Amino acid sequence: MTPGPAPILAAGCVLWRRTHTAIEVCLVHRPKYDDWSHPKGKLKPGEDPLAGAVREVAEETGLTCTPGPRLPTAHYVVRGRPKQVHYWAAEAGEGALVPNSEVDAAIWLPPLEARARLTQVRDRELVDALLPLLPQPRPFP
Asked: Which of 37, 54, 110, 128 is the 20 to 30 A CA-CA neighbour of 116?
């Protein structure tokens, strides 16, 4: 039996931040696909998935991040080839959302609004996995 094609390996983060009164999730819009998703991308040859996830966040959003718990790996098929995307929850750090050639917009939304805006069901499931891991918002004094 001949093995199928090697999977496309990718990684990304469900990026979140704490405001004074709430938690928000970052979504990116990719004009090539006209979709809203989490920051993610293909791994470079030999690249560690976590390092690739952090790199992709920086490239697609202009933000640093602090990775946290591992989230479920997404498995799907792209043009007849299997794809695996490894995900982590990650708290946003320094930087500013800056559009680029791959991502023309990035937005911060409350988790449930982010979930509704995501194009793919598999990306919504990542928000579901993130929610129990998030700190509870602190009331604004």
From this structure: 54
